[in-house]
């Protein structure tokens, strides 16, 4: 885990406050009249990234990377903890809590964890490097949980800043995690959207609350890429839309008003987030903490929000799901600036260590498992391209991943195979203690999913282009040539500068502007990132976990 650092001969270490939310579309068009005072205040005080990417657009795996600096396939938390095959974040892996403690920090955590099964108690996160968790337990995003509990998390964060922080004789890290605007996940604008009986969220769908806050209507607009016909897009893209329509409910083609209602609800959930963060910023004012605290505002993933006629997040590569907020306010640093540099959540851990006083070469020496890159330099000097390149000067790029078993095979899921393998109750003691037996029983009854379906992906985005390699669980690896790429994968390539809506697939050989040399250049970047940041790329689960690989559902009457 590295050797403790020496704190002599360097400037005083700042406190670090991370404000994290869940499932906001970063570049959503905001109607006139909508204000987010906390977010706007942070942007005015700091530097905001226009192209900062999560590594996996789903709660658990994204947070696994955020808090460890490792790609999720190496953490044991590559999919949400709600599934029986996920063991949760390994306690053998150091978190940013451990790393900052080694630099002399007191580390605390409030709000959403969603990385492992937790007992009740304020010390329950000590094995993961954090103190002062909420005594009342976990919150991970049940229906309306953001509305119910975010205010309590904000209250506990303010209380900590005003009563605990002043007693410390050392710098501190506080991570505050709200659930909203995640409440959009279960929103039911109209009964016509109710999922079928086999849909995973059918019993969880919630109509709009009868509250004045949510009665606020705004002049929202439809996304310009709503009516994408997905022409030339591979199977994985179509499979994602089919899967979310089935599990979350389909918006009829002749009801664009329901997309508007959904987007309006998301804005009102975001207003709740902003109101809670405002109380925390006011506590910083009262405690005069701005002069010695780095404040970071971010999210774990995005929300499709009608783009490409899709909703939710997860097994999709589009910017709406993968770009997240990152605003960093540094005492004495730039104010009110934006950067076109590409950032990755893999970079969060080394960036925190850099602000704690470590030089980047020392970070890599002491923590060689961290493959991310410090963003401190581009935060302090926003005109630079950053360590991964930028929109104006494309570089190595950022790596996006998807390894989600639950969304691999919709036909298999429709048989009912998943019904005993997922749980929305993460109360203590409710872990899948009999997971192996459950998995084998499902295999005996329903067979295995079709491991040949290409719904997994590795993608690289360098600021201008995004290349996506869609592959099946039987085709892990790291192709280095065009022949190997197209032999093992489906391919998507977007020009983000000239096609910001990601409507065209330049990677399909039938596209009139298909350029194999361009695909090859982007493939070289993808290959290098996988090799450096992941290493040997292999399935994080056993393909025999169901006790069989036989696909039997196709032999049965539907």
Question: What is the compact description of this entry?
Answer:
This protein has 15 helices and 11 strands.
Explained architecture:
- The chain is 29% helix and 12% strand.
- The chain is α/β, with parallel strands linked by helices and 558 residues long.
- The protein has a domain of 307 residues: 3-Layer(aba) Sandwich (Alkaline Phosphatase, subunit A), CATH 3.40.720.10.
- A 7-stranded mixed sheet has the order 3-4-1-5-6-2-7, with helices on both faces.
- Strand 9 and strand 10 form a beta hairpin.
- The radius of gyration is 23 Å and the shape is globular.
- The chain starts with 14 loop residues before the first strand and ends in a 24-residue tail after the last helix.
SSE layout:
Blueprint: E1 15-21, H1 37-45, E2 47-53, H2 59-68, H3 96-102, E3 106-111, H4 145-164, E4 172-177, H5 212-215, H6 235-248, H7 256-286, E5 293-299, H8 319-322, E6 326-329, E7 337-344, H9 348-355, H10 360-366, H11 376-380, E8 398-402, H12 410-414, H13 435-446, E9 456-461, E10 465-471, H14 482-488, E11 490-495, H15 516-534
Parallel strand pairs: 1-4, 1-5, 2-7, 3-4
Antiparallel strand pairs: 2-6, 5-6, 8-9, 9-10, 10-11
């Amino acid at each position: 885990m590295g050797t403790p650092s020496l704190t002599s001969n360097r400037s005083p270490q700042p406190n670090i406050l991370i404000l994290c939310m869940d499932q906001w579309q970063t570049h959503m068009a905001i109607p006139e009249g909508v204000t987010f005072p906390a977010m706007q205040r942070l942007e005015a005080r700091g530097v905001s990234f226009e192209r900062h990417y999560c590594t996996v657009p789903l709660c658990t795996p994204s947070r696994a990377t955020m808090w460890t600096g490792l790609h999720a396939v190496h953490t044991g938390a590559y999919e949400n903890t709600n599934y029986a095959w996920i063991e949760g974040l390994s306690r053998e892996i150091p978190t940013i809590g451990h790393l900052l403690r080694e630099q002399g920090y007191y580390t605390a955590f409030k709000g959403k964890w969603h990385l492992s099964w937790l007992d009740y108690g304020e010390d329950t996160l000590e094995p993961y490097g954090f103190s002062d968790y909420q005594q009342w337990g976990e919150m991970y995003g049940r229906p309306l949980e953001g509305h119910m509990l975010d205010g309590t998390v904000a209250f506990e964060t303010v209380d900590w800043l005003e009563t605990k922080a002043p007693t410390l004789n050392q710098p501190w890290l506080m991570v505050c995690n709200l659930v909203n605007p995640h409440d959009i996940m279960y929103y039911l604008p109209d009964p016509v959207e109710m999922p079928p009986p086999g849909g995973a969220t059918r019993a969880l769908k919630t109509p709009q609350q009868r509250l004045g806050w949510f009665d606020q209507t705004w002049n929202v607009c439809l996304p310009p890429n709503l009516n994408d016909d997905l022409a030339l897009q591979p199977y994985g893209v179509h499979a994602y839309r089919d899967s979310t329509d089935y599990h979350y409910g389909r918006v009829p083609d002749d009801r664009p008003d329901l997309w508007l209602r959904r987007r309006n609800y998301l804005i009102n959930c975001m207003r709740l987030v902003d109101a809670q963060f405002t109380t925390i910023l006011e506590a910083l004012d009262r405690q005069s903490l701005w002069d010695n605290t780095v404040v970071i505002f971010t999210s774990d993933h995005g929300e499709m929000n009608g783009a490409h006629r899709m909703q939710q997040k997860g097994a999709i590569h589009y910017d709406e799901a993968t770009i997240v907020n990152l605003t960093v306010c540094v005492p004495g640093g730039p104010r009110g600036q934006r950067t076109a540099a590409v950032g990755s959540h893999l970079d969060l851990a080394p960036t925190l260590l850099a602000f704690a006083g470590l030089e980047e070469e020392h970070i890599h020496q002491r923590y060689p498992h961290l493959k991310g890159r410090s963003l401190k330099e581009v935060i302090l000097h926003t005109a630079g391209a950053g360590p991964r390149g930028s929109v104006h000067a494309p570089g190595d790029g950022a790596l996006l991943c998807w390894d989600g078993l639950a969304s691999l095979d919709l036909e298999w899921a429709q048989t009912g195979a998943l019904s005993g393998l997922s749980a929305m109750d993460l109360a203590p003691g409710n872990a899948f203690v009999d997971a192996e037996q459950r998995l084998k029983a499902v295999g005996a009854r329903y067979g295995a999913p079709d491991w040949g379906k290409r719904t997994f992906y590795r993608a690289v985005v360098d600021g201008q282009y995004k290349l996506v390699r869609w592959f099946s669980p039987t085709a892990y690896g790291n192709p280095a040539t065009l022949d190997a790429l197209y032999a093992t994968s489906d391919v998507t390539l977007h020009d983000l500068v000239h096609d910001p809506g990601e409507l065209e697939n330049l990677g399909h050989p039938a596209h009139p502007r298909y350029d194999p040399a361009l695909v090859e250049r982007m493939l070289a970047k993808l290959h290098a990132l996988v090799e450096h940041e992941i290493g040997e790329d292999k399935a994080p689960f056993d393909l025999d976990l169901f006790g069989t690989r036989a696909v039997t559902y196709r032999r049965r009457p539907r």
